[in-house]
Amino acid sequence: MFAVDGAVDFNEYRNMLKQKQENDEPLTEDSDEKKRQQFALFDKDNDGIISPTEVFYVLSNLNFARELSEEDIEQQVEEIMRRHDSDDDGMLTFAGIE
Known about the structure:
Helix content is about 55%, strand content about 5%. It has about 100 residues and is mainly α. The protein has a domain at about 50-98. Strands 1-2 form a two-stranded antiparallel sheet. The longest helix is centred in the first third of the chain and has 15 residues, at about 10-25.
């Protein structure tokens, strides 16, 4: 479930949330709303777009990220953006990561 390096990237984070959701309750029509809520965790300014700065902020404030250096977190942010920026504009949208 987790990378060998002990860091949790965005995919691992989404998988953890999905697993928790599946364990807590069955998937419903509200699952799209739950995904939006998960997206909102990263969208700090509520503009519908997740910037690298917002990803960095969330990762650096998570308990398991406290042991990572700023450089390690920046590498995680770059990886997340590379994997999920579907239109290469340097930002993530809900539709682009779904």
